[in-house]
Amino acid sequence: MPTALSIEFAAATRPIIEQVTKFGGQPTWIEAPQWPMSRSTGKPMRFIGQVALDASVFPGAGGKIAYVFMTEEDEWVDSTWEPDGGENAVVIQPGGKSIAVEISHLVEGPTLFRMIEIEGASELVVQACEFAVKTQPVENAEFQPETDRTDWSTDAFETYMSALEGNKIGGTPAFLQGDEFPEGNGWRLLLQLDSTQVPFFVNFGDAGVGYAFVDANATSARFLWQCA
What we know:
- The protein is mainly beta.
- The protein has helices spanning 146-149, 154-162; strands spanning 3-11, 22-24, 35-36, 46-52, 65-70, 88-93, 103-104, 113-116, 125-128, 130-139, 168-170, 188-194, 209-214, 221-226.
- The protein is built from 2 helices and 14 strands, in the order E-E-E-E-E-E-E-E-E-E-H-H-E-E-E-E.
- Strand 13 and strand 14 form a beta hairpin.
- It is globular.
């Protein structure tokens, strides 16, 4: 059965500069910075986080860190959910394959944020944030395509899905809608991020979930999201 690492978030008390899994803050690049730019706005995408390619989950991985980005502006930008829409990107270092968006050598750029209350303020205030993670190995069921689930009982389907939900690295995706892998074969789940279960704001639509995937060698990656 596939191994996954469940994620527990812990607010960072200092900037995390190590090459480890984290969310928010600024990327800790292994090679020269490769900051993806939005295809529609030409501005830097927002850094969501970086995922260490743990050998227990990704044996034989060609890269060490995957950096996840998505366009996020004050106004709605289309196609952020599409793996090849030019509004999200996953950069792998070292030695990752090129991605299909323009790259900048920015060292720092937009990052995750949360909304907090400030005494005396009439509205919530935007605050940049950064989170370390604690992970725990868990076993996931093998992926079962929609075509194989058509004759399942409701209880069997709910049992299957509930065991796969939540924030995790690797394992089996729990798609909110239909099965949706990037184009081509051999993709495996890198990261599953539930926007309703994270301590920061990320726009995956209405109660959406983000899914990052890596290829068989973990040298190329894609990202998409689905919502309820």
